[in-house]
């Protein structure tokens, strides 16, 4: 094939193909395989490239650009690249329609490995050639968005990958670049530019173009941009604003322009202008500008910042940002110009100290906040601020007793700032010794708020107090512990903190003397409540746990009057979440020391407690035991808890093989509650001996017992044990036993025993539903059957549904080591949807039962489960609001308000149904809670789109008019 | 608002009283409880000051002890104390209190809002304005004024 033929064919192909890019990729493959050379290709493309028709020239150039883009970067030699670069640079002179094709070609060329950069062989420099022709012939502002993007990507490529090749171009490049990017408006292009500008600015010396370069960038500040549409991925104003800041503070030379600009914008009333200006200054002070840049503008900066800080901008974010900016400025001076810091701080102090004269003035707190920021900025600043204002604050305090608490709180702020900078905080120094003295004195005066602040201060100072000071505190602590409740808590916290540092001293001076640790052992002295509380506070410290526990247990045994208080304190201690998370070892020690003796005391000594305190104490000791058991490992539970039952509890029943729980429960009913406390939180893998006799006896107790406390306790424990039983045969036995008795009781005519049976049924169902047991369907159906009873048992069954889905019980929740399968509520909800259809066909009398059960289920499941079934349950939901039963209405309103609060669109189509009903409930219901709930739902409807709710506005306002019109 | 345009740049702040505990009796629908001064005070304590971003309670403009309620005669009498004797906002504050109570209380109550005696230089004039039903009604028809008042009493 002759050259002409081949060229003609190529041109024909290019003109006729619909997918030019793929065809060119093919050509590129041919070239790389050696079937075609690039020179040949250019030669063949000749008729197109030199055609007089612009469209043909464009097609030819585009084809060549596509081919170049398809080649491997290392394929073309330096010489070819030189000629191709020259060709493309020459083309920049051509018609503007070719711009896109040319820029694509250049983009492909610059990525080649052998692009000649200052080449000795060719005496050629492609980057120079490229940029000189681009700057001379391409007018960026006249290009389309995509073409401008291509051009910026060429800049980006060189700045990121071949910076050394363009740095020698110097000011020519700078001028060309800033001229090219000037006036860009497209957000995508701007994000690209803002990402490369910092590198550009830091790599080139701007010289006399600094001003121009800054103007090109600063015209965007502060960014004002509203993205169109709701596209989440679209660029937002914040993205642009964040990207612009590094450009504005890229080099110290910009400071002289940037600071006045930021100050000018900070003066505006627009919130975003303020925030952006503060952000720019903050970033500048942080790492780029130096003190010489900032010094000329210092007065203006301080004036502007002061305006935002005193009396303070109403917008918290602006205020915080201004504080951070001031802090960065002070840090900058501390690093670079301590002398300037001193004079600047003097200005700050001069304008704020006057405001500290009276704590009640509205500017007091903003002034303190500002000074705190200054003190926290650096050690140097802290020293100056503290040495100036502390004496002033102390003088102010004199003669003003009413605001001593505020003064102490202020002092604490500065103490904290000083400690933060200086670990060797010297409490004996001239500045701090009067402060410590004042705080210690205030800790001993009678005003509770003042005392509270003083103890807060002492907690901060605890590690630095001298022995003399500590002695004063120990002397005063008795008084503090007997005073206000909040003061007492803080005082105990202080003692705990001191006890960690000086355990022996606290033992000797507080525990032994004030809390009478030793004297209690042999005298008849009764413990005061405050002593008990302080001791219980100290019990969690490793140094104190043994002696204090021993004392407390002795006291429980020997002093029936003190026992309830000690147990209630222990309960408070053990329900403290902080301890439960951190004090594993201490808890283990307490468990080993106390558990057995507590159980023994419960069995032996409990009756000695005042009869009116018995119930509360019973509850407290149950919680103490539960929490002690809950926190332990399986091993410890097996080691400590299970033997306790065999050795301490069972022998109290009739003699026998240790499995005779029936006799035990007959003899001592309360042992059910003890067993519940001990076994309720035991982990599933701990083996409980004689499980079957225990559960069978419990089932019997829950059927026949008359005392509701014992009965409920037995049901709960039975459900917990069933939930944790891992062997199916044993489980089947007890379930069979329970089911058999249940059938009998449910068939009986005695309403009371039927109600008890339903209660047990609910509990057992709950325990099976939670673990997702295979038999749960049978039990759920059984519970559902009971809803058909229109009397008390039916209502109890409806309440059973609440029991199953709620988590307010102590047992059968994740924290009680129960077996929980995820999504158990969802599974139950799917099964119980049938309730919705039954509620429409059942008799009038039992309808509320079905509706109530359904309302509880609906309330418990998350929105995502509820929404798909909303249509099915809508009719029962609406009927629930018409039933006139408070509980039912309240539960339904709660569900609806949850959906309405999130502006759930599904409820829009029911506006006409719900709004009149809410109005009726809000006006006519006799229950205040229902009225509040209905009003809340109406309030949430008000935040729906106005178009949708406008028809109801008049109706609602007329109904409530009597409260609005006098 | 700019600091240099404020009448009282640095007013004294007072401690807010504690939130009222809701007792079981209050939630019980069967117990009738009369209006008391605390209930009225709760309605007006959170009104914003027209000048500062602070509430009337924080500035001690309204106090519980200066609220009198007479349930039998259906009368509520409130005294408020401007922060400075020449405060030009006194009438506006008084109007805000009146409007808030007109909107919140049942219609049976007659509400009297007055300046605490001896705390303002044109006390009598302001009291007269606030007591004049016609003038109050006219003021509330002024769009700008009701806008400012709504801003003050919005929660």
Automatic annotation (TrEMBL), chain A:
Q: Name one GO biological process term.
A: iron-sulfur cluster assembly
Under the heading Pfam families, the entry gives: MMS19_C, MMS19_N
Enumerate the UniProt keywords alphabetically: Cytoplasm, Cytoskeleton, DNA damage, DNA repair, Nucleus, Repeat
Q: Any idea where this protein resides?
A: Cytoplasm, Cytoskeleton, Spindle; Nucleus
Q: How does it assemble?
A: Component of the CIA complex.
Q: What task does this protein carry out?
A: Key component of the cytosolic iron-sulfur protein assembly (CIA) complex, a multiprotein complex that mediates the incorporation of iron-sulfur cluster into apoproteins specifically involved in DNA metabolism and genomic integrity. In the CIA complex, MMS19 acts as an adapter between early-acting CIA components and a subset of cellular target iron-sulfur proteins.
GO CC entries: cytosolic [4Fe-4S] assembly targeting complex; nucleus; spindle
Name it.
MMS19 nucleotide excision repair protein
Query: By its UniProt entry, which PANTHER family does this protein fall under?
Result: DNA REPAIR/TRANSCRIPTION PROTEIN MET18/MMS19, MMS19 NUCLEOTIDE EXCISION REPAIR PROTEIN HOMOLOG
Primary location recorded for the protein, binned into one broad class:
cytoplasm
Q: What positions does the domain MMS19 N-terminal occupy?
A: 42-310
Q: Does the keyword Repeat apply?
A: yes
Q: Which family does it belong to?
A: Belongs to the MET18/MMS19 family.
Domain MMS19 C-terminal as annotated: residue spans: 559-940
From TrEMBL, chain B:
Q: Does the keyword Heme apply?
A: no
User: Which branch of life, at top level?
Assistant: Eukaryota
Pfam families found in the cross-reference section = FeS_assembly_P
The MIP18 family-like domain extends over: 39-114
An example of a Gene Ontology cellular component annotation for this protein is: cytosolic [4Fe-4S] assembly targeting complex
Keywords on record: Chromosome partition
Q: Name one GO biological process term.
A: chromosome segregation
Q: Which InterPro entries match?
A: FSCA_dom_sf, MIP18, MIP18-like
Query: What is stated as this protein's family in its record?
Result: Belongs to the MIP18 family.
The name this protein goes by in its record: MIP18 family-like domain-containing protein
Instruction: Please name the source species.
Output: Laodelphax striatellus
